[in-house]
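task queued by scheduler; priority normal; single chain, no ligands, no partner chains; default sampling; output format set to C-alpha cells
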Amino acid sequence: MTSSAPPEAATPRLENFRRIVLKVGSSLLVDRARGCVRADWLASLAQDIAGLHARGADVMVVSSGSVALGRTVLGLPDGPLKLEDSQAAAAVGQIALARIWAETLAALSLTAGQILVTFGDTEQRRRYLNARATIARLLDLRAVPVINENDTVATSELRYGDNDRLAARVATMASADLLILLSDVPGLYDAPPAENPRANLIPVVARVTADIEAMAGAAASHFSRGGMRTKIEAGKIATTGGAHMLIADGRVPHPVARVAQGGPCTWFLTGSSPLTARKKWIAGSLEPRGALRLDAGAERAILAGASLLPAGVTRVEGDFARGDCVIMRNERGGEIGRGLAAFDAGDAAAIAGRNSHEVEAILGGPQRTALIHRDDMALAGAPASA
C-alpha cells in the first residue's frame, strides 16, 4: 500500500508560507488534572507565533478550550456533557480563554482578536464573506485572530463537531496556504502506534486516498472531540482549498519551531494555491445570479488584474445578493469572467457608473470601493493561476 508521496515530492519548508492557521486542541491547552491552562507550554507556543509574525507571516489561531475551562469553574463532572451543560461551560470558559490568549500574546507585543463563529458563518455565502472580511482586516492590522466555534449557541445538529474541521474551513475562508494541526501524536502512522510498536510515521501524504482514510482512528479523550479521523477530513478540506496541512506533536515546548528545525510531522500536500482553488470555485461551482455590463475601460482594467470599480459598470442585470456569483460582460455582451458581488443588485444599480468617492454619499456610511474585488473574480479563458 503506497501511502506517502513519491520520492520526487519535496517536503515543504515552514519559512515559505505567508498565511498560517494554527489549531490548538483542548488536550494540549488545558491541564487535565487541574482544569487550568498549561501556562508554560502556551508561552512557548506564543513565542513560536511571534517568530512567524516577525518574519512577516499572517497567523491565525483556532483554539479549543472554552468548555474544558468552563466545566472546571462550574464544577461539572468529567465525561460527556449534556448540550445545555456544554453551552453553559462554554459561556464561562470563553471569557477565560480570550483573556489568556490576549495576555499571553500581549507579553510578546502581539494583539489578539477574538472571533466566535458558527457553522453558518462558513457555509452561508453572505456570512462567509463577512467573516472573511473581518479576518482579513485583522491581519492587515497585524493582529492575531483567535477563532473558536461559538459553543454557547451551537447545537449538536448544526455544528462543525470538532476544531480540526473548523480550522480547515477557516484556512480555506482566509486563503491560508498552510494549516498546522497540533496533536497528541507526531503525525499519521500506518498503524496505531499505541498498539503496534512497529508502526511507521508517514512523513508526506501526496493525496488523501481511501487507504489513508482507513488509517484514521477515533477521539482519544473527552477533552477533545477530534481524533485522527477528523484530521484526515480536515486535510481533505484544506488541500482542496489550496492549503498544505501538517500534523505535528503539540505536547512538546515550542512545537512549531520544532517542525521548522526538522522535527517529525506529517505533511498533506495540495496541488494548487488558495487563490487558484478559489478562482476555480467561482468559475465552475457557483450558479450566476445576475450580470454586470462593463465599459471598455473597465474591461481593460480587470484584464490587467484590477478590481471592478462602480465607475466602469454601465448596466446591472438580475436580482442578486451580496456574495452571489455574477457574470461580467463587455459592451458587446461577451462574457469576460465571473465574480462575487460585493453589493446587492439594488445598491449595485445605484452606484453603477459613479466614482468611488461618491459611493458613501449615495448608499450612506462607509462602503467598499470595489463592486468585485480582483481576488473574487475568475476571468474567462484565463489560466487558473491568473
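post-processing summary
- DSSP finds 14 helices and 15 strands in the chain.
- Residues 1-8, 218-225 have pLDDT under 50 and may be disordered.
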